[in-house]
Specification:
Layout (H helix, E strand, L loop, with lengths): L15 H7 L2 H4 L3 H17 L5 H19 L12 H13 L12 H37 L4 E6 L2 E7 H26 L1 E2 L15 H7 L4 E2 L3 H6 L2 H28 L6 E2 L18 H24 L14 H21 L4 E2 L1 H8 L6 H10 L4 H18 L8 H7 L7 H5 L1 H6 L9 H21 L1
Parallel strand pairs: 3-4
Antiparallel strand pairs: 1-2, 5-6
Helix pairs in contact: 3-4, 3-6, 3-8, 4-5, 6-7, 6-12, 6-19, 7-10, 7-19, 10-11, 10-12, 11-12, 14-15
């Protein structure tokens, strides 16, 4: 039976069912690197204030570093009877170096220890996600740049609305992921605060130097309130919320890839290396990768609700419910990273079917708004121009014709304001190039947007 750190208070041993029910080391052992990093900083501070002598400090650091190596080389055995990663490492440290190991927990509680570990972990993972997002955004810019000549049906309500550049459509996702970058960077500011030295909840009677440990660990500053420091999980909730928004963006992109890849659209073909087949239907080429991204988005949403629910009724300060925070956080990290990576790998291999897109452009009277705008330029009110154009569309529907098949006589039947130059407004490419307002789909605009995006990415890469 492993000794508990609180064994002096209890007369009976912990029931084995309780040990199994309360353990978290099977999950939180992935915090070992952060736990050891935090412990070394804490030990150096203890040496500074005279709790540890130089020889004890050296032994502790050497012992912790040897434990880290053993864990990384899969030579360390975690014991669930010791509950968590913190007690496993502390017990092993004491076994290796003797009584000096028993001094490490002076002026510290597992409450501020785990909060510190989780912040260190999230800081590292948010930075990793930022790098992955930058890579995905670079891929989007490249695909957009390679397809600047392709005009496609822009849609609202999943119906043809107005012509847009495929590149403009793709760059909309660049904007979404740029906002995600900003959100993660903003969350990182609130993650990067040290709770170490807050102890259980009230702070410490020892003369601990919280600024020293904060600086040792690369935090911006120590937390201002010891109770808040150990009971706060806002930073984890914010991270998962930001991840949920990012996953929502990826899910929307995944949905469009699924639609565009279908026989009904035929706008794109997914690369063979990022598609799968059917066990029964030999002709199938399934978009399983984007479908799984779409499905995994729901997991991250669930993680957010889980964290919010865990925290919603907790009185201050620490409560054991908070042990359950790490599962949703770890799963969100893993899911978000894997989805960004897989989408960044898939997109460069897309084959764009320009012919199918051109056929689609001929459907749905996609330049009808341009015809109405033409009449306005000729002196008609917009509402009257809208009515006239609606009558033209009704006529086209009843006759099976399209806008580009109408002659001058046909146009004149609906308004004397139509002249020969109306045919320029019916052309989808002319329609696209007329949208020169800031942020519009004109080729000149989109080319400039791509150049600005490249500059934005260069700045991100320099920050990383």
């Amino acid at each position: 039976m492993a000794d508990k750190p609180w064994s002096g208070r209890f007369g009976d041993a912990t029931h084995e069912k309780v040990e199994h029910f309360t353990e978290s080391v099977s999950l939180d052992k992935r915090l070992y690197r952060d736990d050891i990093q935090g412990s070394i900083a804490h030990a150096r501070m203890l040496a500074k204030i005279g709790i540890l002598n130089p020889d004890e400090l050296a032994k502790i650091i050497q012992g912790l570093e040897s434990i880290a190596r053993d864990i990384e080389e899969d030579k360390f055995s975690f014991d669930e009877r010791l509950e968590d990663v913190h007690m496993n490492i502390e017990a092993e440290l004491t076994r290796r170096i003797g009584d000096a190991g028993k001094k490490l927990h002076t002026a510290r509680s597992r409450n501020d220890q785990v909060a510190c570990d989780l912040r260190l972990f999230l800081r590292r993972e948010i930075q990793a996600i930022g790098r992955l997002l930058t890579g995905l955004m670079e891929v989007i810019v490249k695909v957009a740049e390679d397809n600047l000549d392709i005009v496609m049906p822009g849609m609202t309500h999943l119906q043809h609305a107005q012509p847009v550049l495929l590149s403009h459509h793709l760059m909309a996702y660049f904007e979404m992921f740029a906002r995600d970058q900003e959100r993660f960077a903003d969350v990182l500011r609130r993650v990067n605060i040290s709770p170490l030295g807050s102890a259980a909840l009230a702070g410490s009677s020892y003369p601990v130097d919280r600024w020293m440990t904060a600086m040792e660990l690369g935090f911006e500053k120590p937390s201002r309130n010891s109770i808040d420091a150990v009971s706060d999980r806002d930073f984890a909730i914010e991270f998962v919320a930001s991840s949920a928004i990012c996953m929502m963006h990826m899910s929307r992109l995944a949905e469009e890839l699924i639609l565009w890849n279908s026989q009904e659209f035929g706008f794109i073909e997914l690369p063979d290396s990022y598609a799968t087949g059917s066990s029964i239907m030999p002709q199938k080429k399934n978009p399983d990768v984007p479908e799984l991204v779409r499905g995994k988005t729901g997991k991250v949403y669930g993680n957010l609700v889980t964290l919010l629910t865990i925290m919603k009724g907790l009185p201050l300060a620490y409560n054991r419910d908070m042990q359950e925070d790490k599962g949703p956080v770890f799963d969100t990290v893993d899911t978000t990273k894997s989805c960004i990576e897989i989408m960044a790998g898939l997109l460069p291999g897309l084959k764009v079917n320009k012919d199918a897109i051109m056929v689609a452009l001929g459907k749905g009277f996609i330049t009808a708004t341009d015809v109405a705008d033409y009449l306005v330029r000729k002196g008609e009110t917009f509402r009257e121009a809208h009515r006239i154009t609606g009558e033209i569309v009704s006529y086209l529907v009843s006759t099976g014709k399209t806008l580009d098949t109408l002659g001058m006589d046909d146009f004149k039947r609906f308004s004397p304001r139509f002249e020969e130059d109306v045919f320029n407004y019916v052309d989808p490419i002319s329609s696209v190039d007329s949208r020169t307002t800031y942020g519009g789909t004109a080729r000149k605009n989109v080319f400039e947007a791509i150049q600005k995006a490249r500059s934005f990415l260069n700045d991100l890469n320099h920050e990383i």
